Amino acid sequence: MLLNVIEDEEKWLAEGIASVQQNALFMHRALDANNLRDALKYSAQMLSELRTSKLSPHKYYELYMRAFDEMRKLEMFFKDESRHGVSVVDLYELVHHAGNILPRLYLLCTVGSVYMKTKEAPPKDVLKDLVEMCKGVQHPVRGLFLRSYLVQVSRDKLPDIGADYERDRDESSVMDAIEFVLQNFVEMNKLWVRLHHQLRTSIGLSGLQGPGQDRDKREKERSELRDLVGKNLHILGQLDGVDLEMYRENVLPRVLEQVVNCKDELAQYYLMDCIIQVFPDEYHLQSLETLLAACPHLQPSVDVKTVLSQLMDRLSNYASTCPDVIPEFLQVEAFAKLSSAISKVIEAQVDMPIVGAITLYVSLLTFTLRVHPDRLDYVDQILGACVKKLAGKPRLEDKRATKQIVLLLSAPLEKYNDIVTALTLSNYPRVMDHLDNETIKVMAMVIIQTIMKNSTCISTADKVEVLFELIKGLIKDLDVTTADELDKEDFEEEQNSVARLINMLYNDDPEEMLQIIYTVRKHVMNGGPTRLPFTVPPLVFSALTLIRRLQAQDGDVVGEEVPTTPKAIFQLLNQVTLLTHDLADAGIHDLSLNGLSCSITRAGIKAANDCELEPVAYEFFTQAYVLYEEEIADSKAQVTAIHLIIGTLQRMQVFGVENRDTLTHKATGYSAKLLKKPDQCRAVYACSHLFWVDDQDGVKDGERVLLCLKRALRIANAAQQMANAARGSSGPVTLFVEILNKYLYFFEKGNPQITSNMIQDLVELITEEMQSDSVTTDPASDAFFASTLRYIRFQKQKGGSMGEKFEPISV
């Protein structure tokens, strides 16, 4: 059926165009012959084709344009009285006798245009006569095009200021022009709205109810006619006589009255948009209250948010291009009026989706940031209104609404390029609380990236507290999502960003810096085992940096609550270590956590040594031994850990004799209990360095060095025997060569317990073992031993006291 209707319309349009062209041909002949009677006859017949009701608005427009082009030629004929010999007054009366009303009114409009141009009658009277007579056509489509034609032919004859048709520069003449345009606008809008009801009725009668293609097509065609109505407002906007006072007192109230009363969704939206786009920005600013008062009275289905957004965009652009007008915005209280209007619209449209309300707040915030960037109270007020709207509702799941919330929260960051400013907004975190967990993470990353981009320094504990509340989605689990469900690369990027953020926190005041560290610790320690390896190291290094600063100042800073001393900071580090240890001990046994605890302990030991705090250093060493005993079960990890302990203990200068002996004894005991004999051997001979430290005069115990080396030899020998029993060969002699090098080291350092005879015996032992058939040949061991012997020869040839010491050794 729809296809048949389209085909019929095409046929009717073709027939109408053919008739228009035929009658236009006869009219041209009459014009050429200066035959007025035939010209009127054929022009009326041509215009009669516009009486059709069979065409859709789109097709009717095509037919109308054909006739319009021809009417321009007829108007030129009417202007030349010498050709037709009839005065314009008589001609105006003559066309009244046309048979049908529609052709008659088109001819009257054409002659009336010429009549006004001759100035033989006041334009006011002619315009009033024409606009009243056009009421005789009440068919929506025919009436719209007729009145459009009237506006088109009369627009350059309106009695505006400075125009040829102004009556003695009288202000009332401008009012005549305004009255004509407004009256024509009102009638055209009524016809346009009536077309909606007519189309709906015709669709219902044709059996095409519902969301069918025909109804959509008809509504689209009706929408295409909107420019015919809007043309009146364009003309009003172009009249020089419409000044601010006249616009505010006469034009705007009457236009808005018609907009509100028509109660048509399409008409209200289009006309409000037309008002905003047509009239000057200054007029909008000075009549803001009147314009905004109409918004709550629009139909609920009207897209008010877009209308208001466009209005605020125009005003903000006006303020940006003309900074001198900013005081006027304050004078008229533009923000307060816009904010109130938005609240009233949201209250009036109870069915407005949440995304619509948030969009309005985004537009208002954008306006505020451009016009009143210094008014943070306005920004916070907008965020507070958004919180109020979201109150009592579950977390947003609508992606469009979530996107608008992100825009709302991102706008202050982009404007101020300073997260510190956003941290002063009390409602900022309250808005974030309504986001879903995934979007909270996205917003947190935006905040951190803004800080890093602008190198912003967060320098107070209060601001750090607010900041970490905003980024809580990155530093702790907000839901039951397990680590396995997280994307590893995304997770690592997020946590590395948090770590960089922690490194950027700084304050010159040690007391405030300590409070910042306490605040960070409170938040990051809730992050769980997967986050701590990323977030704890920067926290620890911030604490260690503060310790060094206090050392450099050579004194403590007494705070109001907690004294800022190295000892207080070490207590914090100790607590962090215990917390990570507890997590690893609670059935998690995460290797990264164990390694983290060990790293914190080593860093604490070194810092305590530098600060000469023996009790603190001893406590950290105790923790290190506890970690070794309880958490490190892997044999390779044990080997690495014991060598780290030995190396750290060797460099310690803070311990007294008793504490050092206790710790050294523990390290030696752990070394002898390693799983594999070669590992035992290497750890034991490494312990020898704990008893002979060059830069510490009090730590040079040659006897205990010798005991360690002899014990290492026994273990190496046992390893050889075990290898021989298991594999039938003793394996390489690498361990013996390594022990020989330790003997040489302490021999050079002047340990009196290490003699040349011992070295000689060990060299002979290794040589004998290497020549044994039971020993597996190893090129690396052979090369190592050969290199050691070359070193002994070099020392012998060196001469001096060292040469004399090495001289008894025969190689």
UniProtKB/TrEMBL annotation:
The keyword Repeat does not apply. This is Vacuolar protein sorting-associated protein 35. Plays a role in vesicular protein sorting. Signal peptide: none annotated. Its main location: cytoplasm. It is a peripheral membrane protein. One of its GO terms (biological process) is retrograde transport, endosome to Golgi. It is found in: Cytoplasm; Endosome membrane; Golgi apparatus, trans-Golgi network membrane; Prevacuolar compartment membrane. Gene3D superfamilies: Vacuolar protein sorting-associated protein 35, helical subcomplex Vps35-C. Keywords: Cytoplasm, Endosome, Golgi apparatus, Membrane, Protein transport, Transport. Belongs to the VPS35 family. InterPro entries: ARM-type_fold, Vps35, Vps35_C.
